[in-house]
Design brief:
Immunoglobulin-like; 4 domains; 8 helices; 30 strands
């Protein structure tokens, strides 16, 4: 009797736990379609599924479709480990009436006094298919379960405001991606671009079109638009190898997968780039955009004459740090000042550039005294506030303790009296009265040694001419060698031309870029159509070139591109020219 009561108590307890679990479970009401793309001669099944019983179900109007059957109702209920699962479904069979894009609207139902609605679903109806309602082909399954998307952080940025582009490959759990290969990389015209590298690809879970998907991040790029108006981001295209399930099964009942290759594209993305406002633009604005700050400091405030100190102008923060010119120091004329040395400590993340850029001046005073360094101002545009901001450095005084004092100008110098030149050597010469002349002896040319040499010389030059002719023919047949020599000559010519054009920004960087192009064409035997930064990195790495040299070479090419849109000083041009000579010398050691 006691055992029976115990069983009854346990049964009631488990039932109560199941009811509590059911009450705690959230209510779901969703629409599931048999397919979201079908031919006009196919049929579509629409299931409205809820996990709790409800009343007053109202279906959508199914615009563009004819209801062939429905609603048919099915209920499923089960108990597992004391937990009840419940499902109720209203099913419709639909036939499309025309081709085009249609929307299955919202269905509604009342559950426990609350009204629940389904999410509308898009359906594409195409022309009639050969095998209506047959099993979808491998390519159709791949098209429905594979998507390449370019996610853009901003669609209406300001000029020089960072925009991140993340390329994601979405694929459903029913297919498997085995490999992918880029077919066409975007060129990002009218943008300053920086790709954010990562060590390996990783698969993550997400949603696409309201459905659960997995995705892989393929590429991350930060763009800085260099002009206003409507700018297009070219699409990324991939060839993807994947495994697609079929309706066939093997001997053990396992589903058989088929391999296929699909080409997917992210599509073009358009940005509406806003120009920087003219209202309130400071006179000293040099193109800086972001959240920045200015700092001017010296290595010492007191020193003796002929000693040196360093004055550093630094701009730090987040913004287009590589795309504007730093403000210049104005120093007293009595101080000896050397050209500033530019340095940068900038890292580029998916949110843009951050860090600092600076110019360091070396100053040598010649006389004792106090020399003020006047304050300088710096302005930038802050896209988060939509306004220009300015700052001003403090005045710095250099105190020269010991050394000569500056003297007042003395009396004008008296010019020296010119003196007549003094002749050197004897002014009198002895003239011989007897010249001691001899009669000239005439020797005939014909039959002489010179006559024989001139006669046999052409015969001696014939073998030499034959050897030189063969060598010239061999050189003419060596097309690759001739192209290498020509590219070498062009590289030297353009590099020397770039040196002559220092100070002329556009002409200098055009000549420098051509020199770099022709150098690689000579060393790697490539043509201009293959000339991309990714191809350069791959080829140079394959030839054993150090990563630092590869990065220096590609950085020079980026500077050549960036110079078309940004101000560059003569100091930066000289640094780029010296860097080009250094990088070419380093590459020569390996190549």
């Amino acid at each position: 009797m006691k055992l029976r009561r115990l069983f009854i108590f346990l049964f009631v307890a488990f039932s109560a736990c199941g009811l509590l679990a059911q009450e705690a479970e959230g209510v779901t009401f969703e629409l599931k379609l048999s397919k979201d793309r079908l031919g006009v001669n196919e049929r579509l099944r629409a299931d409205f599924i809820m996990n709790k019983d409800g009343d007053n179900f109202v279906p959508p109007d199914f615009e563009g479709f004819r209801v062939l059957m429905g609603p048919s109702q099915s209920i499923s209920s089960s108990w597992i480990n004391g937990v009840r699962s419940y499902s109720k479904t209203y099913t419709y069979m639909l036939a499309p009436e025309a081709t085009g894009q249609f929307t299955i609207g919202q269905g509604t139902i009342v559950i426990s006094g609350e009204v629940y609605k389904t999410i509308p679903r898009q359906v594409t109806v195409t022309e009639a298919v050969d095998n209506p309602n047959g099993a979808p082909s491998v390519d159709e399954i791949a098209d429905q379960n594979l998507h390449l998307v370019a996610e853009v952080s901003k669609t209406q940025p300001y000029m020089n405001e960072p925009v991140s582009v993340v390329y994601k490959l979405y694929f459903s759990s029913s297919v498997g991606v085995s490999n992918f290969r880029p077919l066409d990389n975007p060129k990002y015209n009218n943008f300053w671009s920086q790709e954010i590298p990562f060590s390996k690809y990783s698969i993550e879970n997400g949603t696409f079109g309201g459905q659960p998907y997995r995705y892989v991040v393929l590429k991350r790029v930060v763009l800085y638009p260099q002009k206003s108006g409507e700018l297009e981001i070219e699409p990324l295209a991939l060839e993807v190898s994947l495994e697609v399930p079929t309706d066939k099964r093997n001997f053990f009942g396992e589903r058989i997968y088929a391999s296929t290759n699909k080409t997917v594209s992210a599509g073009k993305r358009t940005l509406q780039v806003r120009p920087l406002p003219e209202a309130g633009k400071p006179a000293d604005f040099s193109g800086a955009v972001g959240d920045l700050e200015l700092k001017v400091e010296t290595s010492k405030s007191s020193l003796n004459a002929s000693e040196s100190l360093r004055a550093t102008v630094t701009v730090s923060g987040k913004g287009n740090l590589k795309l504007f010119q730093l403000p210049k120091l104005t120093l007293p004329s009595s101080l000896e000042v050397y050209d500033p040395e530019f340095s940068e400590d900038v890292r580029t993340t998916i949110s843009g550039m951050q860090g600092s850029v600076s110019e360091e001046y070396t100053i040598v005073p010649g006389f004792q005294g106090k020399y003020p360094i006047p304050p300088i101002s710096f302005s930038w545009f802050n896209p988060s506030t939509g306004k220009y901001e300015s700052t001003r450095s403090r005045e710095i005084t250099i105190n020269v303790l010991e050394g000569p004092t500056a003297t007042s100008p003395g009396a004008p110098a008296i010019p020296a009296t010119p003196k007549s030149p003094v002749a050197t050597g004897s002014q009198f010469y002895f003239l011989k009265l007897k010249p001691e002349l001899q009669d000239k002896v005439w020797n005939p040319f014909f039959g002489s040694r010179a006559h024989i040499i001139w006669l046999l010389a052409p015969l001696l030059f014939i073998p030499l001419f034959i050897v030189l002719r063969k060598k010239q023919a061999a050189l003419e047949r060596d097309v690759v060698g001739n192209r290498v020599k020509k590219a070498n000559r062009l590289a030297r010519r353009y590099l020397s031309r770039a040196r002559k054009l220092l100070g002329q920004k556009e002409e200098f960087y055009v000549a420098l870029e051509k020199a770099l192009h022709n150098y690689l064409k000579a060393k790697l035997k490539i043509v201009t159509s293959e000339f991309s930064k990714d191809k350069i990195r791959e080829l140079l790495a394959g030839r054993g070139v150090e990563a630092e040299s590869v990065e220096g070479f590609t950085r020079l090419l980026e500077n050549c591109e960036m110079a078309r849109y940004s101000p560059f000083s003569r100091v930066q041009m000289q640094q780029d020219y010296d860097k080009a000579s250094q990088v070419i010398a380093e590459l020569d050691k390996t190549l």
